[in-house]
């Protein structure tokens, strides 16, 4: 199953994980679509986990980060756990700088970096 040009979906063999892959520049122009699409996929499926691969994201702004937090919160309300996997350097840096590492299960910003 495929989503928009920015999101591709793949079901897993384990029967409990839905995988999504985001690609390109995620910013204000795409944030609402990404949020709505991922949240709908998480709440409409029988899957318990939504794993979002962000390795192909080349830019992410605060609106798109907010969209991912919204997806996480909406999914949690539906009993679905959201994780980010394979974060690209821009995604990892943005998440670390904003203090969202723990929310997405990623390593925190190393001491002395800011």
TrEMBL record:
Q: Which PROSITE patterns match?
A: STAS (PS50801)
One Pfam assignment = STAS
Q: STAS domain: which residues? A: 22-114
UniProt superkingdom: Bacteria
The record ties this protein, via PANTHER family, to: ANTI-SIGMA FACTOR ANTAGONIST TM_1081-RELATED, ANTI-SIGMA FACTOR ANTAGONIST TM_1081-RELATED-RELATED
**Family note:** Belongs to the anti-sigma-factor antagonist family.
Name of the protein this chain belongs to: Anti-sigma factor antagonist
Organism the protein comes from: Actinoplanes subglobosus
């Amino acid at each position: 199953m495929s989503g928009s040009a920015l999101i591709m979906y793949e079901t897993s063999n384990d029967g409990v994980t839905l995988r999504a892959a985001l690609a390109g520049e995620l910013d204000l122009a795409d944030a609402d679509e990404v949020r709505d699409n991922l949240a709908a996929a998480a709440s409409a499926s029988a899957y318990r986990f939504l794993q979002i691969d962000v390795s192909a994201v080349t830019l992410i702004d605060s609106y798109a980060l907010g969209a991912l937090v919204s997806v996480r919160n909406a999914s949690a309300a539906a009993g679905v756990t959201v994780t980010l996997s394979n974060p690209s350097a821009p995604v990892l840096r943005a998440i670390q700088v904003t203090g969202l590492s723990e929310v997405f299960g990623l390593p925190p910003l190393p001491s002395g970096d800011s």
